[in-house]
Design a protein that fits this description.
- With 187 residues, this protein is mainly beta.
- The chain has one domain: Jelly Rolls (Sandwich), CATH 2.60.120.10.
- The protein is 3% helix and 36% strand.
Length: 187
């Protein structure tokens, strides 16, 4: 499985709009069969706040379905399957509250985002419960990944933890390669 950009349908009228942000049948029709067991919601006060690149190691590995519910973010998925021919490569998408786009990040991929607006909120479903002992990740600015983050002039706002994550070359072989290399996101 590889990351997918999902665009739920919005029904609009004079009152505003309505949208199903999660529909197990609609997701299954596009190949996403993960069962989600936990919802997370983050708020970032300032544009340029960078969170990631995070994942959880097996047996608590998580697939994520990510959306921006206020403001806008640039969301990234990085291939962390060491035997994949696309190991260390990434895809990214702008997710906005206005557009309602979602990024599906499967198991085997790291996830991170940078806020493009002040007061940005990100909500995401996870296929496994949070397990602190299984936390893993890679440093956001590793030149081996060369992620083209849209950052403010002063650089990102980071947590102490995200500032010291290891480089990609130190990431252990914990995720199997399923035969599906990373591909560009379909628009």
């Amino acid at each position: 499985m590889i990351p997918k950009l999902v665009r739920p349908r919005r029904l609009a009228d004079q009152r505003g709009w309505f949208c199903e942000t999660y529909n197990v049948q609609a997701l299954a029709e596009i190949g996403i069969a993960d069962v989600f067991v936990q919802d997370n919601h983050s708020f970032s006060q300032h544009a340029g706040t960078l969170r990631g690149i995070h994942c959880q190691a097996p047996p608590h590995a998580q697939a994520k379905l990510v959306r921006c519910s206020a403001g806008a973010v640039f969301d990234v998925a990085v291939d962390l399957r060491r035997r994949s021919p696309t190991f260390g490569r990434w895809v990214g998408a702008r997710l906005t509250a206005e557009g309602g786009e979602q990024l599906f990040v499967p198991v085997g991929f790291g996830h991170g985002f940078v806020t493009l607006t002040d007061a940005a909120e990100v909500q995401y479903k996870c296929s496994a419960l949070y397990a602190p002992a299984s936390e893993a990740g890679v440093i956001w600015n590793d030149p081996a990944m060369a992620i083209d983050w849209p950052l403010p002039t002063g650089g990102p706002v980071l947590s102490d933890k995200d500032a010291v994550l290891p480089r990609l070359d130190a990431f252990p072989e914990i995720f199997p390669f399923d035969g599906n290399p990373l591909a560009p996101l379909e628009n």
